[in-house]
Write a structure and sequence with these properties.
Elements lengths: L2 E7 L17 H9 L1 E3 L2 E2 L5 H10 L3 H4 L15 H7 L3 E6 L14 E4 L11 H8 L5 H7 L1 H4 L4 H6 L13 H14 L6 E10 L30 H6 L11 H31 L7 E6 L19 H4 L3 E4 L8 E3 L3 E2 L3 H9 L19 E5 L4 E5 L3 E6 L6 E4 L17 H14 L5 H8 L14 H14 L7
Parallel strand pairs: 1-6, 1-7, 2-9, 3-10, 4-5, 4-6
Antiparallel strand pairs: 2-8, 7-8, 11-12, 12-13, 13-14
Helix pairs in contact: 9-11
The structure holds calcium ion (CA).
Calcium ion binds next to loops.
Length: 483
């Protein structure tokens, strides 16, 4: 059985036709949904890039894999599904953004063609070598992602929240590079034991698709998504004022950002369509297991916010999850049970017939979960959610939130301190504490294995040269040096 995993970064769950969005055009991903299972209540274990990806691969929550931050590593002894599949004889390959530390860390992918967005990976990956060879720089992305350039960014960047058409030609944009690498990798598949994980950098900010995707949507014609409010909530601003200042967001600016965000997703969808076509041409489509998902979501106007890094509201912590099984089993079905991205590893192990000890559920059956759990900030900010209630527990007690999702699905009315919910808050707090308990069995395993923390580059790459080269291109674009 062949496996193709397609991961986006920061894809809000309702920004797909298959999840009911009235405006966005995602015909290819929608066709996967028609041939697969659509999960309506799918959550990431942590709405932060690297922790979420480690959870995806290991089937563990961050408090168990300990990769809490975007520059964290994890112990080399932890099982991952790519490692298990490789041991069984699978040819394993990763293309695009993995966001590992070290950049080319071996977590089970024998081959890696990487395109990274931030951290040291940006100067060590294959995509930026490609850009250098082409004499190009991803100026909009550097402007948004590198603090020193961001501080020098022009007013237009701040006014638009970085939603600006890419300076790159379509064919050199990261989405196209990753998509083309994926198509090349699919073309190299032989036999019936291939695992390819394709991970796009987008639609993560900056919302900078190249033309023509940047012009695909008319901002004035878009439907504002559920949860938009005219003003910020005080408790949200207290938690985090935003990568851009949430309080000064306006509807016209949000609309423009949505148009470019949707364009980024449609550009990804175009490559999903080409991957499906490639598999069909090989006669492999029906028998390939295909997953479409994201590492976390995006507010996109929810509670007057953009991007991420605030409370674990649903648009941030829910993720699209489409599972197309071999033989298109259960095609077109929709599931509302509570699932997590820690369920991916056990599901793939079961489907490939590999014995495993992953903790999560097999997604081919109803999870039976009463609660789904997620955590960030070393567990100081954690979420426990049932179908009808949601607790967001922040260590600083008076910042915790509780929502009655039956009466308040858009998480507008915090009832954490209301007398009538006191017993439920207490019961869910106890349940959350249980979910947050570290599995002590992992201590011994981790004591025996090595925590790989050095920021080792790929052999043959020269991060310093890349750093200097991109700094020079930014100077030509009007930016001062980084240091
Ligand atoms: Ca991310």
């Amino acid at each position: 059985m062949n496996i193709l995993i397609i991961m986006a970064d920061q894809h809000r769950i309702d920004c797909l036709g298959a999840y009911g969005n009235p405006d966005i055009r995602t015909p290819a991903i929608d066709s996967l949904a028609a041939d697969g299972i659509v999960f309506e209540n799918s959550f990431c274990a942590s709405p932060v890039c690297t922790p979420s990806r480690y959870s995806f691969l290991t089937g563990l929550y961050p408090h168990d894999h300990l990769g809490w931050g975007n520059t964290s590593s994890i112990h080399s002894g932890l099982p991952t599904f790519p490692k298990l599949l490789r041991e069984k004889g699978y040819k394993t390959k990763a293309v695009g953004k993995m966001h590992f530390t070290p950049t080319y860390y071996d977590l089970g992918f024998s081959e890696m063609q990487l395109a990274e967005q931030n951290g040291p990976g940006r100067y060590e990956d294959d995509y930026h070598v490609y850009l250098m060879e082409r004499g190009l720089a991803d100026v909009n992305d550097l402007e948004d992602q590198v603090k020193e350039y961001r501080e020098q960014a022009p007013p237009h960047y701040w006014e638009s929240r970085g939603a600006i058409e890419s300076n790159l030609p379509e064919s050199d944009h990261s989405t196209a590079w990753i998509g083309e690498q994926a198509l090349t990798a699919l073309g190299q598949w032989e036999g019936d034991d291939n695992l390819l994980m394709v991970s796009f950098i987008k639609p993560h900010h900056p919302f900078d698709p190249p033309a023509p995707w940047s012009r695909m949507y008319d901002p004035d014609q878009l439907t504002i998504l559920p949860g938009w409010t005219e003003e910020s909530f005080t408790h949200d601003l207290r938690m985090n004022q935003g990568f851009f200042d949430h309080s000064t967001l306006t509807e016209p600016v949000l609309r423009k950002a949505m148009a470019l965000y949707y364009g980024s997703i449609s550009q990804i969808d175009d490559y999903v369509g080409r991957m499906i076509a490639a598999l069909r041409a090989q006669g492999r489509y029906d028998d390939t297991l295909i997953i479409y998902t994201s590492d976390h979501g995006e507010y996109l106007g929810f509670h007057h916010m953009l991007l991420k890094s605030n409370y674990m509201y649903d648009p941030l912590v829910k993720v699209p999850l489409i599972l197309k099984l071999p033989g298109n089993v259960a095609a077109g079905s929709r599931r509302d049970d509570l699932v997590s991205n820690i369920d991916i590893a056990p599901t793939l192990a079961v489907q490939a017939g590999v014995p495993h000890s992953f903790r999560g559920c097999d997604l081919t059956r109803p999870s039976g979960r009463d609660y789904v759990y997620a955590e960030i900030n070393r567990g100081n900010h954690a979420m426990l959610r049932s179908h009808t209630r949601k607790l967001i527990r922040v260590r600083n007690q008076d910042m915790s939130l509780f929502f009655d999702l039956e009466n308040d699905p858009l998480e507008m009315h915090n009832v954490y301190s209301e007398e009538s919910y006191r017993a439920e808050v207490a019961a869910m707090t106890a349940e959350l504490e249980r979910a947050a308990q570290r599995d002590s069995a992992l201590d011994e395993l981790e004591a025996q294995s090595k925590a790989v923390t050095e920021l080792a580059g790929k052999a043959g790459k020269d991060p310093e040269a890349a750093y200097r080269w991109f700094d020079e291109r930014m100077k030509q674009a009007g930016y001062g040096p980084r240091s």
